[in-house]
Structures are given as structure tokens and as C-alpha cells.
Amino acid sequence: MRPDLDYREPEPGALMISALAGTPATALAAAQLLEPEFGPIDCCSFWLSFAHSRYYEAEMGRGLGRYLLFFQRPFLRSRLIDAKLFSDQLEIRLAAAGRRRVNLDPGYLALDHLVLASTKAVPHRPYLGRGIYADLTLVFESGQYIPLRWSYPDYAGDYVRELCGEVRKKILRRRRQGDWR
After folding, report:
1. How far apart are CA 61 and CA 82, in angstroms?
2. End-to-end CA gap in the chain
3. Whether 25 contacts 90, CB under 8 Å
4. Which of 20, 28, 79, 138 could bond to 145 as cystine, CB 3.0-4.6 Å?
5. pLDDT score at 88
6. Does the pLDDT at position 165 exceed 90?
7. In the beta sheet, which residues pair with residue 147?
């Protein structure tokens, strides 16, 4: 092995979990169950209507919405698989009559991008392991997060991108204070 190689973990990101449900109360109840595993929620989006897709309606009903939850603790990017597996198990625990009541999709926000975890294989998602793929959704360029051609419409929208920008500012502030490791 070359002595000059230095394999370091990249700087942590902020764990983000999308909590999609039929009501805000259902999503928030699930959010509370995430905190023992991932720590306190630092930032929560407005309730966002999930009107751009009918993908979940057969299982979860109509009129879905979501919160984007950003967690306070620095998140090691290498734990994305574990976060996805944990959230999937929580979905199963909260299911009623074999149907999910909430869909929990984790990702992480780094200073230079937003990555979501997925179980769906498509060409732009590299395989991470244990059935989980990485979905590069936003990249930070020219002072803002910008969508990619495959980004989901709600993540590509101004509100989510601006929210990510605000969380990025918090990360930078905490980093300057020595509180982001």
C-alpha cells in the first residue's frame, strides 16, 4: 500500500428524511420515532402537497403531502444505507392492514449536493450495497442548489432548493464554530 494515500471519511452532511403521509399528524408521529435513532430534528419544511405523482395513491390514498426533516447531528455519509434500512423497517412497523401509512425516504445534504437513498435501480443511481442506490438530486453551483434532469419535480422546485440553501448556511455556521464533526 502506498504510504501517501489517505482514505478519509468526507465531511458529514445533514441527514434529511422525507416523511410522506396522508396527514401532517401521521408524518409528524413518524418523525418523532426517528429522533431516538438520528437525534433531534433541526429544521422542518412546510407541509408540501405531493401532487406531481400518483405513485403512492393505490397504497396510501389521495391527498398526500410531506415534510422534509433535517436532523441536527452531523451525519456520516457512509451511514446512508443504514438510514434507509432503518426508515424502511419503521414504515413496516407503522403499516396498517398491510398498507404503509407513511413513506420515509432518507438522504443527506452536503455542502456540494443532495443525495437521496433509493431501492429503485435506474441508470443514474450508483449501487451502494444491501439493495440501496444513491440518487444525486441537487448539486451546489453558482451559489445555489440546482436540479439535474432526473431530479423529482418537488426537489427541483424553488422552495426545496432554497430550504437546502438555508440548511447549508447552518452547516457552514456550525463548521466555523467547530461544531460540525
Report:
1. 28
2. 28
3. no
4. 138
5. 98
6. yes
7. 138
What mean pLDDT do residues 2-19 have? 90
Which residue carries 437546502 as its cell?
Answer: 164
Per-residue cell: 163? 430550504
- Ranges of each domain in the chain: 13-176
Could you tell me the sign of the dihedral formed by the alpha carbons of 161, 102, 74, 42, in that order? positive
Task: Please work out, in degrees rounded to the nearest 5, the angle formed at the alpha carbon of residue 22 by the alpha carbons of 167 and 153.
Answer: 50
Mean pLDDT of the 72-94 span: 98
Buried b (16+ CB within 10 A) or exposed e, 47-74: ebebeeeeebeeebeeebbbbbbbbbeb
Torsion sign, CA atoms 68, 71, 74, 78? negative
Backbone angles phi, psi at 66, to 5 degrees: -150, 155
> Half-sphere exposure of residue 70, counting CA atoms within 13 Å on the CB side?
22
Say what angle helices 80-94 and 24-38 make with each other, to 10 degrees. 130
- Cα dihedral 37, 38, 40, 44, rounded to 10, equals -120
